[in-house]
Specification:
heterodimer; A: alpha+beta; Nuclear Transport Factor 2, Chain: A; 3 domains; 13-stranded mixed sheet; 11 helices; 13 strands; 26% strand; extended; B: mainly alpha; Muramoyl-pentapeptide Carboxypeptidase, domain 1; Arc Repressor Mutant, subunit A; three-stranded antiparallel sheet; 10 helices; 53% helix; flat
């Protein structure tokens, strides 16, 4: 008996010892792999910090050169460099492991600096000069960029020393991010960044658009519900709260009929159906794109979007997205746009989106082009074949709305839309039709 | 003596089990931090769906029309095919099912804009990871928040930049971003890309039942949809 127990004990000890050794080897291998991942991640973060520091250095230098340059060609060169560097800098900023709320001002500065530099290159390209106000702005921007540059240089020195970013990140129980603390001087609300007003990307004027298309008396909740019930009479309508953003205040309603549900938002001011949406659950196609366009037009008229026409349709297979714009005197007003979504199985209109209409639609004055279609056509590239043309008004981020001749052209197995300014013949925009799995897109 | 040996045996076995459990648990936590939960399924393009439908129709599994829409009939036909061929009958065409069907999942980009398709796919993945189970309008709203951030000067300028910005979305941190999105998420992504925004400009959202950051609670709420408050 004793001998048997001893044998069992010895065998078990050998087995357990072997298993323990294997387990230890396995754990060792896993730890090695984990360390490898950690080092790779740390190197990636270090690269972002060093690249960002380098970019801010170069932005600072380019701004300095710009502030003393007196020649348009050289100014354009430095502005182009700043646009490119800002794009790279925001990309590196976005990869840093810091909570975004610590970064907002720095992000805004980099994006707006890039947008401002872009708008100045457009200005110089149009034959204008940098104004005194622009020069003062550049000096203010130089002060901010120097401040950021100095902080980032300090951070770059830190990461190049014996400092592990990964080891100083937020821990699993959400304690303080020590790495993020290094950005304290940049993230403080007391740090002043210049306010930039310009006509270009990310400018405060673009981000603070005026709403022109809503007017009249404000609706009450009851009036809004009554209107929604009238327009969507086939559904049960229930109040679902309000949305109140800087630009729009709406009453929200849920629609219900059997297993179909939807969501409608109607503006308090102007009683405009700003949004209507149902999920597309089509499982087969029975309606053509043309039929869907007809249904979209009918729905737009029913909801009070008078004077609109379908200008573009995107065939997303089980549904169609139609763009309708306001048309007056044969001129298409692209800023005054609504989008309607139609289910290709049932032909039901399952969506409407009218923010652009709300922002831009007003009673339009008669517009006359300064140049004829034939003269504008001469401005096109000679290797393109023109298919059709029309007059239109297009939105421009930098220059506001512009009356243009739109030419639909064919070149190198692709369709292009070229917009020639109908007042001065300048080429304003070129769009390409790109075929995707979700239909044709204009890019 | 027998008792001592028996007791020693029990102690050794107990110690070994505790040690093993501890090691596996801590490794699992660390590995989850770095390991990606990569789904092997690929997103099917419309032409790929048509290929699946054609093949299954030829082999008698599918009786519907070849229309490129992955509806219930197509999914059931795929399930039947998978059952007959010893595959996991989940109705999803992943790598193994595609191989059994004799087709490739590499998308044909001859005439398509791959970046646009990738954007919708990535947006759908994020919506699915963050908002599956939420009302459809809530899913569209989350897509809209991502696109609002792209347009804002205070955030990265691309969809991938916004989604993969560190600490921006918990679904990226915990790997749920790699789950295959469902059709509802795709539909919501398309609507958001086409301009639908029930929040009219929100840049943040949070679940009031789970949010602990005092900073997010200080944001101005624009609307509440489902379990999420959308704020700026």
């Amino acid at each position: 008996m004793t001998k048997t127990n001893t044998t069992i004990l010895v065998v078990l000890t050998i087995v357990l010892s072997t298993l323990t050794i294997f387990l230890a080897c396995y754990v060792g291998t896993i730890n090695k792999e984990l360390n490898s991942y950690k080092n790779e991640l740390n190197s990636n973060y270090e690269h972002c910090v060093l690249a960002l520091s380098d970019e801010m250095d170069n932005i600072d230098v380019s701004l300095s050169k710009l502030s003393v340059s007196n020649e348009t060609k050289t100014q354009e060169k430095y502005l182009t460099q700043i646009v490119s560097l800002c794009h790279s800098a925001q990309s590196d900023l976005s990869a840093l492991p810091i909570e975004h709320n610590l970064f907002t001002n720095t992000y805004k500065f980099v994006n707006q600096l890039g947008g401002y530099a872009f708008s100045l290159t457009e200005k110089l390209g149009g034959g204008n000069e940098i104004s005194l106000e622009d020069k003062n702005n550049i000096l203010e921007l130089k002060k901010s960029s120097s401040n950021i540059k100095n902080e980032l240089n300090n951070l770059a020195s830190l990461v190049l020393s014996d400092y592990s970013i990964v080891d100083n990140l937020k821990t699993k129980n959400n304690t303080r991010n020590n790495f993020g603390d290094n950005f304290k001087n940049l993230c403080d609300d007391s740090v002043q960044y210049p306010s930039l007003i310009y006509d270009g990307p990310f400018s405060d004027s673009v981000e603070n658009k005026e709403v022109k298309g809503l007017g009249g008396v404000e609706l009450t909740n009851t009036e809004a519900e009554s209107k929604v019930k009238k327009l969507f009479s086939e559904f049960d309508v229930n109040f679902a709260g309000e949305t109140c953003s800087k630009d729009f205040c709406t009453y929200n309603f849920e629609l219900k009929k059997d297993d179909v549900s939807g969501f409608v938002q109607i503006t308090k001011k102007g009683e405009l159906v700003l949004s209507y949406n149902r999920e597309n659950v089509a499982s087969k196609i029975t309606k053509s794109v043309v039929e869907c366009e007809f249904l979209a037009q009918e729905f737009a008229n029913k909801l009070g979007f008078v004077g609109t026409q379908v200008v573009w349709s995107q065939d997303a297979h089980s549904c169609v997205y139609c763009n309708l714009c306001y048309v007056k005197d044969g001129i298409v007003f692209y800023p005054d746009m609504i989008k309607i979504k139609i289910c290709r199985q049932t032909g039901d209109v399952i969506g409407l989106e009218a923010q652009s209409w709300a922002y831009n639609h007003t009673e339009r004055e008669k517009l006359e082009p300064s140049m004829s279609e034939e003269v504008a056509k001469q401005k096109l590239s000679k290797n393109m074949e023109t298919i059709s043309s029309k007059l239109c008004v297009i939105p421009d981020e930098c220059l506001g709305e512009k009356l243009c001749w739109e030419f639909k052209c064919y070149f190198d197995d692709a369709i292009y839309y070229v917009y020639i300014d109908a007042q001065n013949g300048e080429e304003r925009k070129v769009l390409k039709v790109v075929e995707t799995e979700d239909g044709s897109l204009l890019m | 003596m027998t008792k001592i040996i028996s007791r020693s045996l029990k102690v050794i076995i107990a110690f070994f089990l505790m040690f093993s459990s501890f090691m596996f648990c801590s490794l699992q936590n660390d590995y989850n931090f770095l390991e990606t939960n990569v789904s092997v399924e690929a997103s099917l393009t419309t032409s790929q769906v048509k290929t699946v439908q054609t093949k299954l129709k030829n082999w008698g599994y599918y009786t519907g029309s070849v229309d490129g829409i992955y509806g219930t009939k197509t999914k059931n036909a795929v399930k039947n095919f998978q059952k007959k061929n010893g595959l996991t009958a989940d109705g999803i065409v992943g790598k193994k099912t595609a191989a059994a069907l004799g087709m490739s999942l590499n998308s044909n980009t001859k005439n398509s804009s791959s970046s646009s398709g990738n954007d919708i796919y990535l947006l759908a993945k994020c919506i699915h990871a963050e908002a599956r189970g939420e009302p459809y309008t809530g899913q569209v709203a989350i897509g809209a928040v991502i696109l609002n951030r792209v347009s804002s000067s205070k955030f990265p300028n691309t969809i991938s930049g916004v989604i993969y910005q560190p600490y921006a979305f918990t679904a990226v941190n915990d790997g749920q971003i790699n789950l295959e999105p469902n059709q509802s998420a795709y539909n919501a992504a398309r609507d958001a890309m086409n301009g639908w925004d029930p929040t009219y400009g929100a840049l943040y959202y949070y679940n009031p039942k789970t949010a602990t950051s005092s900073w997010i609670w200080s944001r101005t709420v624009l609307v509440t949809i489902g379990n999420h408050k959308f704020a700026i």
